[in-house]
Amino acid sequence: MFKIFFISIITIATVNSQLTVPALSPSSKTIQTVGLTEIEIEYSRPSKRGRTIFGENGIIPYNELWRTGANATTKITFTDDVTIMETPIKKGSYAILTKPGKSTWEVYFYTYTSGNWNTYVDQTPIASFTAKFIELNEVLETFMIYMDQITLDSSQLVFAWDQIKIVLPLKFDTHKKTMTSIEKTISGPTDFQYFQVALYLHETQTDLDKALEYIKKVTKNKNALFFQVYRESLILADLDRKTEAITAAKRSLELSKKVKNKDFIRLNEKNIKKWSR
């Protein structure tokens, strides 16, 4: 009787316990903002572990569909519309499958519906792309998907493992979305908002005259800050109005000295000297 009771305890303990072991291909979630768009990538990261990865003798044969990672479906989500290699893609979530080849990869996007990657194999992708692979000088042990070469309205979607990487160029309509936001708020903006708009228009070289108009709404205030007046000087210089740019730089220099900001003191002195030639 005691023996049966003891065995029952062992059985119950075994059933109720949870085995915890590390994943060979750990899951990863990457969130990257490009301009005003957020990109989220969810995938699993297998490692090389001394194996041949791509090719006839590799674990991923050429010209066969690959889940582009391990375990569940690789998923990418865009919060705004995006253009990939001149193909427009609507905002939303997509499953990514790839077909590695000897010199190029085929990259397939499917509307995301399931974490089981096999459900996409017989489907027609909503978009497909051909990308040449780039040889790496070193071995990348663990598979990676990441965003690179990020600007205000573009980036690269990169797949990399072993000694190769694949790059897909992405474009975002950041300017249109930004200008829409500006138009909605410009009816009664604060000095800070005027400065933000001027900064954006200047940095993107979109409309320097409008940038000057907005920054002057800030700098006409006697309480304008040194970095705001500094921006006015840069805009004036880009408009080739050097005399006015020097005047603004001198004002920014004095304001910078009052707050003992060495960086802007140095920048203004350098610009005054350059524009005075």
Describe the SSE topology.
Blueprint: H1 2-16, E1 27-34, E2 37-44, E3 75-78, E4 82-84, E5 87-89, E6 92-100, E7 104-111, E8 127-148, E9 154-171, H2 174-185, H3 191-203, H4 208-219, H5 226-238, H6 242-259, H7 262-275
Antiparallel strand pairs: 1-2, 2-3, 3-6, 4-5, 4-9, 6-7, 7-8, 8-9
**What general outline do the C-alpha atoms trace?**
elongated
* Helical/strand content category: alpha+beta
Distance between the termini: 103 Å
**Can you summarize the main beta sheet?**
9 strands, antiparallel
Indicate the proportion of strand residues. 25-35%
Folded structure, characterized:
With 277 residues, the chain is α+β, with helices and mostly antiparallel strands. The chain is built from 7 helices and 9 strands, in the order αβββββββββαααααα. It starts with a helix and ends with a helix. 35% of the residues lie in helices and 30% in strands. It has 2 domains: 150 residues, no CATH class; 102 residues, Serine Threonine Protein Phosphatase 5, Tetratricopeptide repeat (Alpha Horseshoe).
What brief labels describe this structure?
alpha+beta; Serine Threonine Protein Phosphatase 5, Tetratricopeptide repeat; 35% helix
Short description:
This protein is an alpha+beta fold and 277 residues long. The chain contains seven helices and nine strands, in the order H-E-E-E-E-E-E-E-E-E-H-H-H-H-H-H. It has two domains: 150 residues, no CATH class; 102 residues, Alpha Horseshoe (Serine Threonine Protein Phosphatase 5, Tetratricopeptide repeat), CATH 1.25.40.10.
